Amino acid sequence: MPEWLGQIAPYLAAPLRAAWLAAGERLSDLRELRLVLGQPVLLRLAAGEYLLSPQGALLEENAATQALCFDQELCRTTQDLLTQGSLYALAEELRRGWLTLPGGHRVGLCGHAVLDAGRIATQRELSSFNIRIARAVPGCAAPLLPYLCDGGRLRSALLISPPGGGKTTLLRDIAVQLSRLRYRVGIADERGEIAAMQQGLPQLPLGLRCDVLSAAPKAEAMQLLLRSMSPQVLLCDELGTPADAEAVADAARCGVAVVATAHGGDVAELCRRPVLRELLAAQAFGRLVLLSAAQPGAIAAVYDAAGQAVSLC
Amino acid sequence: MLRLLGAALVLVGGWGLGAWAVARRQRRLQLMQDIGSALAALQREISCRALPWPQACRIAAEAAGTAREMLLCAASGSCERAAGEAWRSAVAPYIPHLPAEAVAALQDLAAALGRSDLAEQLAALTAARQRLEAARGEERQICLQKRRITLHLGWSLGLLLVLIFW
């Protein structure tokens, strides 16, 4: 049985936990568990989407009546377990809309937003939970390394894919591989998904030369890592704000490579986002790595800073 | 001689019964005081450090005296089921040792657990503490009033038995 199955089970209400554990090996390529109040429990596997029955069987969508329904009681208990009965202690998590479980599994939270001065202050009456499974895929970054360590020089890279495309898994393995190649790696792990730190220890394997600053905003974390840990490469997930762009530029000025990720279907899509457009125009990344939409984590194409496809000789 | 010895034993037994009843009330008072202290500690840990409920319970348990098990049980239980449900289970073994108002205060607290924001959680703890304190005040009054009576009733009962069977 996959290890993550047991890591997530204690956070599910009893009937859901029983179905989850009964499904066991059938969930081995699970990507997401989606729980929506009043709806059947939905599993997103690599092979497609299925509903979960109370006995742990995987059902097609047309068998929704036989599926386990995420009713009010399951929703309340699951919320209690996910928050450890401490909704009051999770104000920040509720505001930003996600929390991280031990093992690095991210739980997206959605309910009724409470606004303060027009901005989301917190959420109440949570009704949707999206549990994304974090798993290490050792060696998945190996095909990418020749593009990053080109001629002995480490290049900055931006990994591009739509959500669920395997960017974070690839990023984690890049950290492992670069650390093995004796590069000092600084990881700005704002969402706790790359290293999944628990009491100072990464829950997912990282290399010997990796320093992790978790839970801090990416830009601030990158600057702190630059100042304090003398990294040769900085890793972070999901660039998006002007401050992130400034931190990437700062790192480049210090001669430190940055490997980051961004949501997007292709390079043209990224160019429609002002922050990323500026970064691309400034040729901040020596490599733009497009991941395959069909096969998460697989490399579809690699471009250089000018947007020309790169192929290895 | 044997009769005298038996009479003395019955008298001492009666007095002991009264003393036991008084001690029982004292223990009940002590338990209520310990639960009150534990709730205060919980409130402190939550308001100052925003600790998650199980962790706050474990810390509060250290200063909870006779209510220690209740807090530890609530802490471990809320990792397996809803916090309110775990709290009710933790309180259950103490119900026979507490007055009805104190039991109601503790059980009502369960409704607020797990689903409240910081302000509501603290308000629920404050309300539970106040109700518990009020119940303890009443219990203390009853204890003071009945202490002497209970003791006297104890040895009087012994004396009565001696006189009847002499």
Could you say which structural class the secondary elements and strand pairing of chain B correspond to?
mainly alpha
Q: Based on CA inertia axes, which overall geometry of chain B fits?
A: elongated
* Morphology of chain A: globular
What is the CA–CA distance across the termini of chain A?
A: 41 Å
Count of individual helical segments of chain A: 10
Binned, the helix content of chain A reads 25-40%
Mean pLDDT of chain B: 88
Uncertain stretches of 5 or more adjacent residues of chain A: none
Count of beta strands of chain A: 18
Indicate the mean pLDDT of chain A: 90
Radius of gyration of chain A: 20 Å
The sequence of SSEs of chain B as H and E is HHHHHH
Structural class of chain A: alpha/beta
Task: Explain the layout of strands and helices.
The complex is a heterodimer of chains A (313) and B (166).
Chain A: H1 3-8, H2 14-23, E1 30-36, E2 42-45, E3 48-52, E4 58-59, H3 72-82, H4 91-96, E5 98-100, E6 106-116, E7 119-132, H5 145-148, E8 149-150, E9 153-154, E10 157-161, H6 167-180, E11 185-189, E12 197-198, E13 201-202, E14 210-214, H7 218-229, E15 233-236, H8 242-253, E16 257-263, H9 267-270, H10 274-281, E17 287-291, E18 299-304
Chain B: H1 2-49, H2 53-62, H3 68-77, H4 83-91, H5 100-112, H6 118-165
Helix pairs in contact in B: 1-2, 1-6, 2-3, 3-4, 4-5, 5-6
Describe the 3D structure.
The complex is a heterodimer of chains A (313) and B (166). Chain A is α/β, with parallel strands linked by helices. Chain A has helices spanning 3-8, 14-23, 72-82, 91-96, 145-148, 167-180, 218-229, 242-253, 267-270, 274-281, and strands spanning 30-36, 42-45, 48-52, 58-59, 98-100, 106-116, 119-132, 149-150, 153-154, 157-161, 185-189, 197-198, 201-202, 210-214, 233-236, 257-263, 287-291, 299-304. Chain A folds into 2 domains: 3-132, Beta-Lactamase (2-Layer Sandwich), CATH 3.30.450; 142-304, P-loop containing nucleotide triphosphate hydrolases (Rossmann fold, 3-Layer(aba) Sandwich). Chain A contains 10 helices and 18 strands. In chain A, the strands form 4 sheets. A 7-stranded antiparallel sheet of chain A has the order 4-3-2-1-7-6-5. In chain A, strands 14-11-15-16-10-17-18 form a 7-stranded mixed sheet, sandwiched between helices. In chain A, α7 (218-229) packs parallel to α8. Chain A is globular and about 55 Å long. Chain B is mostly helical and 166 residues long. Chain B has one domain (2-165). In chain B, 33% of the residues are buried. The mean pLDDT of chain B is 88. Chain A binds chain B through residues 10, 14, 76-77, 79-81, 83-89, 91, 122, 124, and chain B through 46, 50-54, 56, 78-84, 86, 113-118, 120-121.
